[in-house]
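Reminder to self: tokens first, then the designed residues, so the page reads top to bottom the way the pipeline ran.
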């Protein structure tokens, strides 16, 4: 029987239907697989994006934690330096006198200006604190260089704020040099005084210092305003000898 006859075509009809159904199923599977792949690809991209966002948030949280730890350490260091202690000029006078006695300073003069708000570099502002400063000029004399250097070093580290030096000039005392050049030893066996003993040498300061500092303190804006200490008002230039 020929397939081109009506009976032949009728016999192949079922085969054509099976072939068409197979082709349709194949196309459906290919198209479905493509859309499934695209969906999975999009889900993978979204998952990668969510993972990246989570990692970024984790890194930001770690950075904030480290910043808080650093801020806490900085705050503790500032508290230890007395940066938040209100400027007390009476306490400052006592501290200067103690330094003078401890380091054998023979003469000490200082001038303390009026406290004022400090302007930070670049117009920077700090929301939590106000930075205050008072200009301070110190003139001191000592017999030994080591005493003067020790005095300046300890003064700059006083735990009453920050004392950055703007200028500090050290010079030899001309009177000391002249006195050393003209000193004559008493004659042997001669009487230098009524008791027949040599008069003790007169000690003259050998080194002078003229230094300018900025006394910096901080005021916490969140704290309750404290009553100003008795010595907190602007003082006139003071001298200690």
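Designed residues (241 positions):
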């Amino acid at each position: 029987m020929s397939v081109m006859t009506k009976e032949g075509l009728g016999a192949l009809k079922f085969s054509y239907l099976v072939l068409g159904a197979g082709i349709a199923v194949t196309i459906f599977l290919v198209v479905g697989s493509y859309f499934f792949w695209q969906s999975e690809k999009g889900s993978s991209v979204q998952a990668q994006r969510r993972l990246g966002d989570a990692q970024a948030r984790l890194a930001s949280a770690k950075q904030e934690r480290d910043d808080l730890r650093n801020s806490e350490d900085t705050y503790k260091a500032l508290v230890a330096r007395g940066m938040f202690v209100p400027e007390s000029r009476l306490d400052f006078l006592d501290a200067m006198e103690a330094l003078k006695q401890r380091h054998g300073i023979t003469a000490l003069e200082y001038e303390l200006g009026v406290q004022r708000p400090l302007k930070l570099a670049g117009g920077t502002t700090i929301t939590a604190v106000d930075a205050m400063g008072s200009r301070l000029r110190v003139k001191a004399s000592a017999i030994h260089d080591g005493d003067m250097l020790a005095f300046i070093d300890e003064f700059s580290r006083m735990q009453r704020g920050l004392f950055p030096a703007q200028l500090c000039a050290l010079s030899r005392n001309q009177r000391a040099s002249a006195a050393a050049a003209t000193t004559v030893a008493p004659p042997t066996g001669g009487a230098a005084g009524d008791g027949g003993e040599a008069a003790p040498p007169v000690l003259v300061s050998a080194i002078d210092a003229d230094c300018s500092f900025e006394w910096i303190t901080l005021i916490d804006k969140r704290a309750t305003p404290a009553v100003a200490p008795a010595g907190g008002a602007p003082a006139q230039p003071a001298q200690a000898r």
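The CA atoms of residues 218 and 229 lie 16 Å apart.
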